[in-house]
Specification:
230 residues; mainly beta; 17 strands; 6-stranded mixed β-sheet; 40% strand; 4-stranded antiparallel β-sheet; disordered C terminus
Length: 230
């Protein structure tokens, strides 16, 4: 039976969670097919988008066993409390989604929840040559103990309009996602709220401003794994 429904709204790169009670030690899981799936509501009905055979869904189970101190006091688990967590991809289509649990002897569906674009991007000033100002639109940094999938450090591909002093200019990013504009040292650069920063519609949060020439931060490197020489 269901223990907890997912929150009504989940932002991209956020986590939706569904909890239920079932058999102990994960024995409800079927062999060679998906156990937990994510479906999206479309014009043709509910369509499967992700499942636990991929990397965006994690599920865990905790039993009701009891192990007091001393020998001979073990109570073996006869039920399990399952938790499934889905990390919403940054390119996920907005709309209504639900969890579907396809166990060996039962099937559960969560209440639908909404996936929104959210305000995932942050304006981060970076180092630029004298007479210029530069910034990136950064995605939230992945937490290796919480998040499940890789995501890029910064967004690329979309021009944005910013204010440089009293002027408004449109600036395109480089291939590495660095926005560079002409600006005298000390001039304030303003990036408005809700700027669309990538091709998936993800946007910045609040209005941000910074002073040209004040940042010594370099654009972060993408966390690609190092390749072995062999």
């Amino acid at each position: 039976r269901v223990l907890a429904q997912p929150a009504e709204v989940t932002r991209r790169l956020g986590h939706a969670e569904f909890r239920w009670r079932g058999g102990a030690r994960g024995t409800d899981r079927p062999l060679e097919r998906a156990f937990v799936s994510i479906e999206r509501r479309t014009a043709r009905g509910w369509q499967s988008e992700h499942d636990d055979l991929g990397t965006t869904i994690e599920w865990r189970v905790a039993g009701n066993e009891q192990v007091p101190l001393g020998p001979g006091y073990l109570k073996e688990a006869n039920e399990g409390r399952y938790t499934a967590r889905w990390e919403t991809p940054l390119d996920a289509a907005t709309g209504r989604y639900r969890f579907v649990v396809s166990a060996k002897e039962y099937r559960l569906r969560s209440k639908p929840f909404e996936v929104t674009r959210g305000a995932a991007l942050a304006v981060v000033p970076v180092k630029a040559r004298r007479g210029r100002a530069a910034f990136t639109l950064a995605y939230p940094t992945a937490d290796p103990y919480v998040d499940l999938t890789w995501r890029p450090q910064v967004a690329t591909g979309r021009p944005v309009s910013v204010s440089v002093g009293r002027a408004t200019v449109e600036v395109k990013p480089s291939r590495r996602g660095i926005y560079t504009i002409s600006a005298k040292p000390g001039v304030r650069v303003k990036v408005p709220a809700r700027v669309r920063g990538d091709d998936f519609g993800n946007r910045t949060g609040r209005h941000t401003s910074f002073v040209a020439g004040a940042s010594d931060t370099r654009r972060p490197r993408e966390p690609y794994p190092l390749l072995m020489p062999w």
